[in-house]
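pipeline: protein-struct stage 2 | run 1193 | Ig-like domain-containing protein
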Amino acid sequence: MIEHKFFNISLFLLLLFSGDLSGDLSLSFTVRDGDNVTLPCENMIKNHHSCDTTTWLFTDSRGKAAVELVNLGQIKETVKSDRLSVTAECSLVIKKVTAEDVGRYTCRQFRGNPGKQQGPDAVVYLSDVIMTEQKSRDQVTLNCSVQVHGHCEHKVKWIHNSEGLNRDYSNIKTLQSPCSAAVTFIKSSYSHISNSDFKCNVTTEDGREQLFTFSPHSSGKKGGEILMIMIKF
Ligand SMILES: *[C@@H]1O[C@H](CO)[C@@H](O)[C@H](O)[C@H]1NC(C)=O
Ligand SMILES: *[C@@H]1O[C@H](CO)[C@@H](O)[C@H](O)[C@H]1NC(C)=O
Ligand SMILES: *[C@@H]1O[C@H](CO)[C@@H](O)[C@H](O)[C@H]1NC(C)=O
């Protein structure tokens, strides 16, 4: 009896972990702020040609309870429902992504009445890279930072593609931390270069490199945002 119970518990734990850790499918996408992003649902039921079995859940990076964005193919009323759509492949499209969209997206399949979950969850983690420009007197600081769900495992740094910068680095300061990087330079010393000579180099946790040219953001303070998505089962 005790053995039986123990077996059940370990089987439960095994399922719990296999749902989260096995099947190392890890995709990431990078999208600039204001761009649209398509999160694929990787656990679709084979040969089912409709999204009436698909549910999308969202947990934000502050770890609040999951919110249902899509229920059996129908977009639910949420703060971002007007920016959401579902493709024929049941992918979740988010328009004009913002930092509030950072978090964990779960695609889940249900069948039958009452609905029973089919297969494992397909999880998509969304991270957001924000670029800002700060000017003070003659000094310009460009900042590139990644907003992530949970622990930061991204590497961020600024690189440049200007001939002029290769000659003289003396008035350029860089500051690197795990999920952000800043570069500060004296504008008058580098009048020949522009902010768009700088690129933010983001290396994701799975070692993929993505480059983003600095571009000012249209709405005020923000420089521009990029998105990063990781898919895990
Ligand atoms: C996002 O999608 C909308 C319509 O679906 C389109 O009008 C807009 O240009 C797209 N934005 C970008 C940045 O591609
Ligand atoms: C860059 O932005 C991030 C996120 O807002 C912030 O934590 C970091 O301190 C900033 N770095 C500098 C040097 O301002
Ligand atoms: C971007 O950063 C990664 C990791 O720090 C580095 O290996 C790579 O060479 C950099 N890419 C460029 C174009 O500098």
